[in-house]
Amino acid sequence: MNWNKATQQQKLKYQQASKIWLSKRPLFEELTSCDNPMCKNQQHIDMLEKFYNNIVEALKQAASEVLTNNPKQKHNVPGWNKDVKKKHKAAQRACL
Q1: In which element (H, E) is residue 93 found?
Q2: What is the reported pLDDT for 78?
Q3: CA 14 – CA 9 distance, rounded (Å)
Q4: How far is CA 91 from CA 57, 62, 88, in A?
Q5: Angle ∠(2,66,25) on CA atoms, nearest 5
Q6: What mean pLDDT value characterizes the chain?
Q7: Which of the residue ranges 9-13, 63-67, 79-83, 85-89 has the most confident prediction, judged by mean pLDDT?
Q8: pLDDT per residue over 56-84, tens digit each?
Q9: What kind and span of H or E run contains 91?
Q10: What whole-number distance in Å separates Cα of residue 56 and Cα of residue 35?
Q11: Is the pTM here over 0.85, yes or no?
Q12: Distance CA 36, CA 57 (A)
């Protein structure tokens, strides 16, 4: 989503949806108790990666809800922009 073009209402909806989706993701208590900033514990590394992925997925879900309510936009593809769209169309034409 282009946040520069988002309405204030869309931003508020995203904020609310983010809170809901993030609250459904587990917080790994062991991560908050580790005080080693250079921790090499593989279990902690795995938990941190899973926690990161959970956050990203929650924010994607929240954005999807906001975009679903936007009749002008059918779906959101992260990283998609006008330049990518032009290249995609050119690639489609080349394959035909």
Answers
A1: helix 82-95
A2: 67
A3: 9
A4: 30, 31, 5
A5: 105
A6: 81
A7: 9-13
A8: 999 998 888 887 544 555 556 667 777 77
A9: helix 82-95
A10: 24
A11: no
A12: 27
